[in-house]
Amino acid sequence: MAQLTQKEFRNAIALLANEMGLQRLRDRFVKLNALVTRRKVASPENLADQLYMLSSGLRRQVAATYAFHAVWGEHLQAKLGEDGEKHLEKLAEAVNACLGEDEQIVADKAAELDAALADYERALSAAVGVDLARMDMLMKAVPAIAEKLRAAPALPAAATDSP
Question: CB-based burial of residue 58 (10 Å sphere; 0-12 exposed, 13-18 middle, 19+ buried)?
Answer without folding.
Answer: buried
